[in-house]
Amino acid sequence: MGKILDGKSLANLRAQKLKKEVEILKQDGINPLFCVINIGDDPASKVYVKTKKRRAQEMGIEQKIYQLPSTESEESVLNLIDKLNQDPSVHGIMVQMPTPEQINVNHLLERIDPEKDVDGLTPTNIGHLWQSDHFVEPATAIGIMKLLEHYKINVAGKNVAIIGRSNIVGKPLAALMLEKDASVSVLHSKTKSLSTYTRMADIIIVAAGQENLLTSEMVKKGAVVIDVGINRVEGHLVGDVDFKQVLSKARWITPVPGGVGPLTVELLMEQVVKLTRRAHGIK
Ligand SMILES: Nc1nc(=O)c2c([nH]1)NC[C@@H]1CN(c3ccc(C(=O)N[C@@H](CCC(=O)O)C(=O)O)cc3)C=[N+]21
């Protein structure tokens, strides 16, 4: 029987420390300010934005939400980003994904000042990530690394299988795993035999957005399984892993909810504070 990697508890533990850091900054007259741009009315995005807002409030971080209509032009979002880049009271900017189809998200990311890039997704910061010289990292990917570290799960020399090649999870996680000396396979919808890779893997990360994608036959006994999936099924949340079955085969597994999700939000808050300190030349 596997054990639970409790992302929610780790997020709360880290939040206690972060809250104190924010208090100290505020005593020095520095108020961390985080701006979220949400374009359109994707219901999942609205939930995430609200979750972040609540978390920011708990931390004493100010968050401004720019809710734009689904018809907003790319040009006008670029103008908003320029304005936030130039505003010295703004420490962090993020664009909630996905964006509507008239908008090329890469154009938006290119425009964000890398020093205000809370998500670590600007081309500059992705370059830094692959050069192993980074100061902000995509939140989900770094959250997973912190979770493994907290439970003393070493990745060096391990076979790591990542299912999903997104710019926000799969690719940056591959960079972070390589940096820690893992042997990484990045798998995706065109991979011929997923289980060939996953059965060899000591650590499996599933970030594909497909319910029950990872079943117990695909998992080596004693493996570590990290579920990044968020699927709403009949009003409740499930991940990409057949949790019940895989729990009995794995040594460690993350639940959904209460696994990677809360850590993603916590790491975003930490990056806001990190960028705030950096902007003010602290440490
Ligand atoms: N630019 C950008 N950066 C992101 O980091 C980003 C994004 N776009 N677009 C969407 C994804 C998804 N994401 C989540 C955040 C919180 C939970 C979370 O808090 N999940 C809770 C449950 C929340 C609920 O009940 O709905 C949990 O798993 O326990 C999940 C997923 C951030 N994302």
From TrEMBL:
UniProt catalytic activity: (6R)-5,10-methylene-5,6,7,8-tetrahydrofolate + NADP(+) = (6R)-5,10-methenyltetrahydrofolate + NADPH; (6R)-5,10-methenyltetrahydrofolate + H2O = (6R)-10-formyltetrahydrofolate + H(+)
Residue ranges of domain Tetrahydrofolate dehydrogenase/cyclohydrolase NAD(P)-binding in the record: 138-278
Annotated pathway: One-carbon metabolism; tetrahydrofolate interconversion
Database matches in CDD domains: NAD_bind_m-THF_DH_Cyclohyd
Keyword terms, alphabetized: Amino-acid biosynthesis, Histidine biosynthesis, Hydrolase, Methionine biosynthesis, Multifunctional enzyme, NADP, One-carbon metabolism, Oxidoreductase, Purine biosynthesis
Record-listed E.C. numbers: 1.5.1.5, 3.5.4.9
Transmembrane segments: none
Ranges where the Tetrahydrofolate dehydrogenase/cyclohydrolase catalytic domain occurs: 5-119
InterPro entries registered for this protein in UniProt: Aminoacid_DH-like_N_sf, NAD(P)-bd_dom_sf, THF_DH/CycHdrlase, THF_DH/CycHdrlase_cat_dom, THF_DH/CycHdrlase_NAD-bd_dom
Functional description taken from the UniProt entry: Catalyzes the oxidation of 5,10-methylenetetrahydrofolate to 5,10-methenyltetrahydrofolate and then the hydrolysis of 5,10-methenyltetrahydrofolate to 10-formyltetrahydrofolate.
Family designation: Belongs to the tetrahydrofolate dehydrogenase/cyclohydrolase family.
Name the UniProt record assigns to this protein: Bifunctional protein FolD
Organism: Lactobacillus intestinalis DSM 6629
